Amino acid sequence: MTSKNLILLISCFLFFGGMTMAEMALRFILMNRSVGSIIPRMRKERNVLTNTARSDGNGLSAELHQELRKHRWDRKKPTVWSQ
Question: Which of 45, 50, 3 is nearest to 22 (CA)?
């Protein structure tokens, strides 16, 4: 799948799912059972409120989660800062 097609696919999911890209990313991360917490951007109060609302326990649909997993980036050699 080309990056152009991937963008189109994600845009369709966002449009029909009513999610922003940031919400979808946070919900994708939170669906991983090995993730206990995340630290999203908190520059403005509205960011804090929206980001905390994403931890409501409602993840992505199984269909969307499986589709997005096909496009995740698995690094062959992790960088020092990510360890």
Answer: 50
Residue 47, helix vs strand vs coil: helix
The residues spanned by each domain of the chain are 3-70
**Quick one: DSSP state of residue 60?**
-
pLDDT of residue 11: 76
CA distance 49 to 55: 11
The per-residue pLDDT for 19 is 78
| CB atoms near residue 10 (< 10 Å) | 17
* pLDDT for position 15: 66
